[in-house]
Amino acid sequence: MQKKHESGTDHYLRGRYMSISRRKFLGWLGAAGFGSALGNTARAASNKHFDGYPNSNGVLFDNTRCIGCRKCEEGCNRVNELPEPERPFSDLSLLDAKRRTTAKAYTVVNRYDDIVNEKGPLYTKFQCNHCLEPACASACFVRAFTKTETGAVVYDASVCVGCRYCMIACPFEIPTYEYDKAFTPRVMKCTMCYPRVVKGLLPGCVEACPTEALTFGSRQDLLKIGRERIAKFPERYEDYIYGENEMGGTSWLYLSGVSFKDVGMREDLGVTPAPKLTAGALSVVPMVVGLWPVLLTGIYAINKRKGKIEKQEKEQAVVAALEKAQNEAEAKLAEALQKAEKEKAAAIETAVSKALEEAAKASEEDADDTAVEDADQKSSEEDS
Questions:
Q1: Exposure of 334 by Cβ count < 10 A (0-12 exposed, 13-18 middle, 19+ buried)?
Q2: CA distances (Å), 57 to each of 232, 253, 256, in order?
Q3: Tens of pLDDT, residues 205-236
Q4: Cα gap 255→237, rounded to integer Å
Q5: What is the mean pLDDT of residues 11-36?
Q6: Are 137 and 278 a contacting pair, CB within 8 Å?
Q7: Number of Cβ atoms within 10 Å of the Cβ of 363
Q8: What angle do CA 188, 94, 307 make, to 5 degrees?
């Protein structure tokens, strides 16, 4: 039976009139942080509306083909020369918990056990969606983010001031920060393997996928492929391509066998590009938002200090427990030795007493024998 779904425009236009969520509000603030202080500079730095290179490249993810093998994660890690994870990519137990991207993992796959098809649970791959009109770029007043003609949204760490407005503005909660690097922290996210793509190579995750759940190509071609799959297998897919319209459209597109919200995707974003949402706010949001990076850094420092104190307290507790155990053991040993000494002394005393008694008895017996012998001798002499 064919699944019914609202048309993309009808369904997602409703998102424009929903009440402002906390994150959307913070997103507007992030995009406008220095607006009142920098005036025209901030206004100019925010991306003006543009078409976002709709004919650029993109990737189509089909969750009905994904088997949750994490090969895409491994490929991403390899080509981007990211740190080796603590647990190997073959360890699928990581899928037991929902994860998000980090500064050391540009993409993650999450499993949804409650949603199954003929092949088992469904999976969703998360990474930067490379919006046609990126919220991160519109929020960045130093233009550290750029939407390229290849489709990738790239980041220039050399101009980044660490304000992290991009993290607040992103509706997909993708950019992360190297909080553990005190002097040269960077914002980290998927680059759609931009250095590889400009050389004619595939993104690492696409190259590594063994089931063709990921398809790289022209965004227009990917939309055509998506529509053809939906038309050919209407019972398999939702009648919608996620990313075609969300936030003005994204370079990453998605096909799903169930409602997108059931596999971790937001359906409340609407179709309006982020720069349009934030343009008006740039001139009215107070400078107080500039304190946000300080607040984030402070929270991180407090949490790190708290963790350090907790670790020290645990270590001190272990040392105290060991000392207590050692003292108790030494006390018990001393008690046992004292008891053994007493038992040994008592045994010796008993043995000596017994020996003395036996010696006295033997002496008495010898005396009696001597007396008998003397009496017998005297009697014999008298008879003579």
A1: exposed
A2: 24, 11, 21
A3: 999 999 999 999 999 999 999 999 999 999 99
A4: 7
A5: 41
A6: no
A7: 10
A8: 65
Q: Could you tell me the two tokens for 314?
A: 């645990």
| E strand map for 118-243 | 120-126, 145-147, 153-155, 176-177, 187-188, 214-218
Domain 8-285 has CATH 3.30.70.20: yes
The span from the CA of 22 to the CA of 40, in Å, is: 27
Cβ contact 274:131 at 8 Å: yes
Nearest to 129 by CA among 331, 273, 339: 273
Residue 185, SS3?
coil
Cα dihedral 168/169/172/176 (nearest 10): -40
- Cβ(144)–Cβ(155) below 8 Å: yes
DSSP 248-288: G-BSEEEE-SS-GGGGT------SS-HHHHHHGGGGTS-GG
The neighbour count for residue 128, using CB atoms within 10 Å, is 24
**Beta strands across the sheet bearing 252-255:** 214-218, 57-62, 252-255
- pLDDT of residue 260 exceeding 50, the answer is yes
Alpha-carbon dihedral angle through residues 200, 84, 74, 137, given to the nearest 10 degrees: -60
Phi, psi of 132 (to 5 degrees): -65, -35
What is the C-alpha to C-alpha distance for residues 375 and 189, in angstroms, rounded to an integer?
122
pLDDT of residue 13: 36
- Dump pLDDT digits (tens) for 138-185: 999 999 999 999 999 999 999 999 999 999 999 999 999 999 988 889
Q: How far apart are CA 287 and CA 133, in angstroms?
A: 25
Q: How far apart are CA 95 and CA 92, in angstroms?
A: 6
pTM (predicted TM-score): 0.63
